[in-house]
Amino acid sequence: MLAGDAELPEERVDGECLKGDLRALLEQLPELQGRVLKMRYGIPCADNPEGGEPMSLTGIGRILGISRDRVRNLERDGLAGLRRISDAVEAYVAG
Fold first, then answer.
1. End-to-end CA distance of the chain
2. In degrees rounded to 5, what are phi and psi of residue 45?
3. pTM of the shown model
4. What confidence tens digit (pLDDT) does each residue in 54-67 have?
5. Which fold, 19-94?
6. What are phi and psi of 22, to 5 degrees?
7. Do 88 and 36 touch, CB atoms closer than 8 A?
8. Pfam families of this UniProt entry (predicted)?
């Protein structure tokens, strides 16, 4: 039997679990940092319910009513926060 290009069921489950885990990690960040990261990387959220397309710093700033530089700082701080949190999750991902 030839392998197709279709996603295998276990790959779909793994992907959904990863998305859920990522959302849970983002919820541990301060609200504004989490919102910025979700919009920046195209993750569905209240400000971008469809998700999909990553947004620009300027676009995020317009929606949130803050400057592009403030958005960049929130993104940087949010990513640093995820790195700190990831130490606690590293064993789970490696397993």
1. 30
2. -155, 180
3. 0.72
4. 999 999 999 999 99
5. Arc Repressor Mutant, subunit A (1.10.10)
6. -65, -45
7. no
8. Sigma70_r4 (PF04545)
